Amino acid sequence: MILDKNWRILTVGDGDLSFSYSLAKHFAPAHLTASVYDSESELKHKYQDNAFNKLHDLGITVVTQFDVTDALCWQKVPPHAFDAVIFQFPLIPAFDSFESFQNQTLSVNSLNRKLLREFLINAAAYALDPNGAQLGIITSKDVKPYIEWNLEGSLINGLEQYYLGQSRFEISQFPEYQIRNVDRDKHVKDTSGISYYWSVNPAHAIKEKLKVPDYLGDDYCTVCRAGPFINDRDKLAHLDSKKHKNMQRHESAWLNYLSTQAKLER
Ligand SMILES: C[S@@+](CC[C@H](N)C(=O)[O-])C[C@H]1O[C@@H](n2cnc3c(N)ncnc32)[C@H](O)[C@@H]1O
Predict the structure, then answer these.
(1) Which pLDDT does position 201 carry in this prediction?
(2) Name one GO molecular function term (predicted).
(3) In angstroms, what is the span from residue 81 Cα to ligand 1's centroid?
């Protein structure tokens, strides 16, 4: 993960706060504000081993009940005061009942994409300093279902933001960080991931240090990360595959959601 010690960083959705604690203690950026979705009591109940008090002892502000999709929550942090806003291993919370799951009109795939899109929109609108580094960063796993969100593609369709590239996330860079399962006091064993970077600046200097994966090139199926195809037959076989049709269903549902939203906003 590429970070700069000169950055003023805001972390969001940081479950047990161990990522923020690791950053504060072992990386020490110019400034750090940490935030979590839960209230202090929910966090302490959910994760017995949490870094809430330890961050407090280091003098780091922790903002609780910070929902990245809610514009009002972004008023809890200083406006336009950050260089980078980081969301580690995002995932929508579990539904609180079978009924709320059934009442949901969007698929779980689209809901996760919506969470991340709204995170990037709100980070740029409220937290990022227009005179700063202006980066939205998401670290996610390189396996299903996370790779089914087309993060590098249609996530930001129609926004004035640009996907800059990615870097490998190495847990060894972050001592004492425990990557959490959503809403559970368990940490995950497979810690490999990819950190994805976005900015309103398409010519951002950080691009030099980031990698743009081959699967975004021609002769690949970007949504499936498949290819390179050696000929048309190879490509057609992929387009006809179960994997592609499944991915296409996710992608169509998402594009459908975006076009419905665009009509509502007109
Ligand atoms: C898989 S956990 C990862 C937790 C932590 N970031 C880590 O790396 O261990 C997903 C996290 O996303 C958070 N989250 C989900 N929806 C959110 C929202 N709307 N706003 C803020 N955080 C959210 C959850 O509270 C949960 O802590």
Answers:
(1) 98
(2) rRNA (uridine-N3-)-methyltransferase activity
(3) 22
73-87 tens-digit pLDDT: 999 999 999 999 999
Q: Please tell me the residue having the least CA distance from ligand 1 atom 16.
A: 92
What number does the ligand 1 atom closest to the CA of 69 have?
19
Q: Which residues does a 6 A CB cutoff place in the pocket of ligand 1?
A: 12-15, 19, 37, 66-69, 88-93, 115, 179-182
Residues of the chain with pLDDT under 50: none
CA 151: distance to chain centroid? 9
Q: What is the pTM of this model?
A: 0.96
